[in-house]
Write a structure and sequence with these properties.
By secondary structure, the protein is α/β, with parallel strands linked by helices. The protein is built from three helices and seven strands, in the order βββαβββαβα.
């Protein structure tokens, strides 16, 4: 089962479009989910890594840990840009377009449909 630490933040563009920034904590330079951690070990994983847990939920795609970015020292970890092409764990940002009419005028959301991240991003948006 995958362990998926994340946080999210809603923002509005200057044109009034709503975006959701979803930031996942990933392994192997931001290319894979963390594997091998059991649900009962989730809190100790957070404690060991200095993550302040706000919410935990489970789906068929993994164990999700919503992290409080204001109480967690995010900057002390690698960013995706720093960790890419390494084996380091890092925070990687994904942008998801939110609209009342279910329209994604830039087709941003469809960019992830053929990736392993698609189902996870959908699970986070559904919460």
């Amino acid at each position: 089962m995958y362990l998926i630490p994340y946080f999210k933040k809603e923002e509005t563009t200057f044109l009034g479009n709503k975006l959701m920034k979803i930031v996942l904590f990933l392994g192997n330079g931001g290319t894979t989910f963390l594997d091998g951690v059991q649900e009962k070990e989730a809190q100790s994983f957070c404690n060991e890594n200095g993550f302040v847990l706000m919410k935990k939920f489970k789906t068929a795609n993994g164990i999700f840990l919503e992290i409080d970015p204001k109480k967690t020292e995010i900057a002390s970890y690698y960013s995706f840009e720093e960790a890419f092409k390494t084996n380091n764990e890092c925070w990687r940002t994904f942008i998801y377009v939110i609209s009342d009419e279910n329209k994604d005028i830039w087709n941003v959301n469809s960019l992830f449909e053929e990736t392993p991240f698609s189902k996870v991003l959908h699970d986070i948006m559904a919460v």
